[in-house]
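Hi,

I'm pasting everything inline rather than attaching a file, because the server keeps stripping attachments. The sequence lines come first, and each chain or strand is labelled.
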Amino acid sequence: MSTISISHLRKAYGPFLAVDDVSIEIPTGTVYGLLGPNGAGKTTTFKCMLGLAACGAGQIAYDGRPLAPSTFERIAYVPERAVLYDHLTVAEHFEMTRRAFKKFDVKRAVELVGQFGVDPAKRARALSKGMKTATMVAIAFAREPDFLILDEPTSGLDPVNQRSVLNLIINEATRGCTILFSSHQIGQVERAAERIAILQKGRLVLEGAVDDLKADRKIVEGILPSDDFSVNGFAADKRIARVDKQGRILRLTVVHEPDEIASQLGATGAQGVRVVDLNLEDIFIGAVAPDTSNAVVVEGAN
Amino acid sequence: MAYVEWLRVKKTLIVLSIILGALFLIAVVVRISVNNEFGPGRLNSMIGDGATVVSTQAVPGGTRTVYKAKNGDTVTVTDRGAEGITGIVTGPTVDAKRSKNQHVRIGPFSMTASKSEVDFETNGPIDVGMLFAYLTIFGAIVATVLAAPLARENERLEVAWTKPIDRTLYALQLYGVDIVGIVAAMLLMLVACIAAYTLFQIPHLTLTADGALHALVAIVACAAWYAMFAAITSWMKRGFGAFIGIAWPVALFVPGLALIGLGGSVIGLTFHWTFQVISAVDPLAYLNLSSGIPRHNMGLAAIDEPLKLLVLAALALVYAGAGLIEWRRVEA
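And the predicted assembly:
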């Protein structure tokens, strides 16, 4: 068992509430994506989870136990900013990790940095941003941890290496590792994560299995007969979670009976009415961007 | 756990060894260039032109020569080569000396004046403990180089604080590695001093209880100096180098200002006591940096060594503890 449990987490920096009452349960062997716009509280959540920042309230548990120094034998963390010791070589970073942790496969670490094109003899100060990230990723994966916490693990990497990191994440999960990662690349999260949580202004606005979130919601869209067509009827419909109107174009985020809603929209004289599957980007934008320019939005009316 | 700190210490010791090695080579060159001064009759110039040799006889390990100086003084010199020189001066110069019963010792060199003679020795016993204590300032410089390990970690708390070790224990390991490094550097310097000395004379090394106490005070003083930096900087994420740089002139000036009394006026006494209190928390204020200063003008440096040891140990503990408490409150 390697479950991460975050319960009613709260963290404030002065008057600014960075994380507000966030609760997440991450089951064993799950790849869990944490999404949110900049400043949503993702990194702060990670820091609180690892004791790098003091929680204002709430509990963090790994397999039901609070974080203790010994827990770090089972946790590997890749921070958003690659924090290597500039004066040390990559190989010396491996040695540092080998001395600090009971489990660290130096051979695998060398192999991994080799895949990313990093020379272990190079000093950290001579590495590019992407190479630094790759080194941190290699160190984390070579530890074969039970919990992997990755904050933007593909930041600065080229598309090929981004793909490699994603493959590593998926492989680790098949080994039984519980992985929590954040990324601005929603496509990557969609590819790797089984469950996601979306944070917005420190609050958890959406959480669930990616497949369920996609299945639960559909987009019904069409072109309205006129610009001033009233959408109030749709906004009042409990089956519709969100109404976006931009000029004559209407997009309805539907949680139940999308075909029925499509028929209703067609009956209003709207043209080109169709039912579209949501992708994670739609879900994300729907959750975090209620206001778009020149659009009439009715958010969460139901 | 403190592998990175150990690498820093190792690098510092390597650089120091290279510098000391270069200085030793210079000492070798100097020794070779003054080789003639160390041959037979090396004291002739000291005794003066016109002195005549009265007698020369072999003694174990060297020769004993009696000189009659032009002014009537008799100088008996026992030269044992690398073992050093001892001598006795008698005659009108000694009789004319105003101050009697003087004893001056600077390291292995000593001179004792009595009513009737002046004895001198060039290679007396060297108390290793005392010699070590003379290296305190050098130790403080190394402590400055290694200072602020916690502040250095603040840039990488994501790495430092995700190791499977309690933070207090981790910080203590960093302190420990650095203190060992400072003592090792002082020992290196000590060895270098003795090696350089050996080029000229074979040292007679001893270790007295007093010397050991002075050595201990030296180590604790360097530890307190190091810990003071930890207390000042452990909460900082950047800019701690400037604080460390400023600390030296401040730490050296404050004890000096505390000695100023401005004639005992109210302002003078206020000035004196203000800086006296400030200098009480300055580890460098307890160091006797010059043997030429009369004891009553040495301020805190004049207090007895056991008390000095206690005060410096207390300062080291308080500073180290304060640094630790601040560091535990830092957030990544």
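Residues 291-295 of chain A have pLDDT under 50 and may be disordered.

If the labels don't parse on your end, tell me and I'll reformat.
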